[in-house]
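Task: complex structure prediction.
Instruction: return structure tokens for all chains below.
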Amino acid sequence: MKKIGLLTSGGDSPGMNTCIRAVVRTAVGKGISVVGIRRGYVGMINGDMYDMDARSVGGILQRGGTILGTARSDEFMPKKGQREAIRQLNESSIDGLVVIGGDGSLKGAQALHEQGIKVVGVPASIDNDIWGTNMSIGVDTALNTIQDAVDKLRDTASSHHRAFVVETMGRDCDYLALMGGVTSGAEIVVAPGKDIEISEIASEIEDAYIRGKNHCIIMVAEGAKLKVHEISQKLKEIDVGFHTRVTVLGHTQRGGRPSAFDRIIASRFGIKAVEALLEGESGIMVGLKGRDIEYVSLKEVAKRKRKTSAEFKQMARMLAI
Ligand code: F6P
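Output:
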């Protein structure tokens, strides 16, 4: 292996830059060239690539986002796009690839592996829905962002005796809402796939009011069936005691300086990804299992979705009495 290509793809997540730095410096330290591919599979199809060295990743460890840029590429999905991408990799004499991204990006990596490209995936997504790893890069920082925001909301909520309906990210997944609910002491969490009636939310909130609480947090995942404004409106109509306000945390959860935890896993994943390519591995992702970094088959990653442990599902509610 003489030259590896490196890309970030899909939704960005804090710690991607830390991982880019780790990949580049590990490879360069082992005498391997690195080519950065801009904007994920979009740049691969268009041959938008540049040579990277140890200095080109200086000062990025602590920066959110990704210096390589990222994109969600529809063009790469069909065989035609993948053929173009492979042609570009061959033209640039790239012998191996590190793909840093979420589930869609890792499916793309598996597709390239099936067509003979040597590829190793690194899980990065604030959603924490990637199978085969306890944590993905960016999750911890996103949770800290949620925690900070809700701590602030609670200050004003308790001053005004209000209930805040807070939307976290997670189009199809519940991790940020559930864990954000635990870390910020929400009274109730509304997550996708967990059908809950508005009447149940209302009686829970009214109950909290009667118990003498001076504020309430209702954490709602972006992908939940009930939407934040609808919940707020209905709570107003029903009159649960508290006045309500809505806060959508949105893309603030995707940005910011990576936490220490994210910097550590991003660095470990980056080093391990390069080592895996050098060991001749392909079609695998590096994942965190317990304290160790292990190899997981990309085929499995592409087929399955990480589920949030049932233990966390009732936790916020249990502790909100
Ligand atoms: O990266 C994952 C994620 O942040 C999801 O939680 C969210 O639903 C989605 O990306 C938003 O994507 P976009 O930034 O493309 O609107």
